[in-house]
Structures are given as C-alpha cells and as structure tokens.
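SEQUENCE WITH STRUCTURE:
===
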Amino acid sequence: MSRRRLQQLVDSLGRSARHFNKSEVECLIKLFNTLVADSNSRFATVGFDRNVFRDTLHSAFGMTDDVLMDRVFRAFDKDNDSCISVVEWVEGLSVFLRGTLEERIKYCFEIYDLNGDGYISREEMFQMLKNSLLKQPSEEDPDEGIKDLVDIALKKMDYDHDGKLSFMDFEKAVRDENLLLEAFGPCLPDLKSSMAFEQKTFREARKL
C-alpha cells in the first residue's frame, strides 16, 4: 500500500471509526496487513476470511464459542462478502473495543438475532445459552435448566409480553441493567483482554 493511499485511508477511517485517533487507525491498518500477509487466504488481495478472524478473536480475546464467533464475523462483515476488509476491520473494532453503550446494545442485539428477523426468539436464546454454558455432568436434563433460564430472561426483558425480544425490549432491559448486555453469551472482549490488545497494537502510536 502506498504512503498516499495509507494516508487517505487513515483520514477517512479517522472520521468513520470515531473512537480511534489517526495514529491508532494506522496501527490497526498495520496489524490488518500483517494478518492478511500471514493468512494465505484466497481473499488476500482484499482482506481476510472467517478462519483468520476467528483465530484472532480466540488468541487476542479468548473467545471460544463457535456460534458467537461466527456472528461477530457477520457483524464486522457489513457487505456479506465473507471477507473482512480493512475498513470493516477498523470500524468493527471501534465498536468492539470502545463502543458507547448505545453502539454496543445495537451490536449485541445483531449478534443474538441469529436469523436476522429483528427479534431474539425463545429458540435463539435456547441455542446460544446451550452453547455458552459449561456442560455440567449431572443427573438432570441440562435442556430443562436452559429452558428455565430462557423463561427468566423473557420474564425480565420481554416488556411487551409477545414471547420474544424486540430491539426496544432489549435496549430497555440493558439500559435498566447493564449486566444484561451479554445475557446470551460473550460477544464483546473483557476489559483485561481489550486493554492487552490495545497496549500491544497501539504501542507504536504512543511513541509518535
């Protein structure tokens, strides 16, 4: 990438990914280029694929849930071309690492709405909770315990009592109780791993 092209990219991403300053944007572009170079992916000219992205989520942020990692990939991949471009990477990380509560509510709702119909259904909650909870070796049927959790979640969050969560339901519940943001599984980095990622990635920006 030429210096001029890089500068244009930094300028435009400095505006669209508003939680990063320009030197941080430049560091994220460098990391992106490194990931692409290491990936041997068929998308190498434009970005990297699902596998590289999942490896990064796992190594940098300790994510292990396949369903949620796939949903995070889709949230970043705004144009649905199965490839993360440099713009999608920086803009996605802006919300992922430093998003406002409002941005994170929208992001988490998008992750949890597995079929994209604008609601988090009882079945979607069940699937995500079943995936994200540790399997306990016990006599009881684990599915029963998960169904109970779904009932509790609906009781607490389904304000219009239609048996599913709309964005308005989810937003109201999270604003009342922030801990409900990741009610159906971890899809944002914890503070420790996001700070470690930022320190490592932005080390050069601090020297400038």
Summary: The first strand starts at residue 119 and ends at 121. Residues 29 and 86 are 7 Å apart (CA to CA). The mean pLDDT is 90.
